[in-house]
Please model this.
Amino acid sequence: MILSSILLDEKITNLQVCGFFLIIAAIYLLSKQKGIQN
Model:
C-alpha cells in the first residue's frame, strides 16, 4: 500500500487503511490462537 502510494502516486483512502488494520488484527489474533493451542 505504501509502495503503490510512493511509486505509482496512488491516493490512500480511508477504506484501504481500515482494511489494512483489519488484516493486521486478523493475523495477530490467528497467531495468538495457535500459540494457545500448543
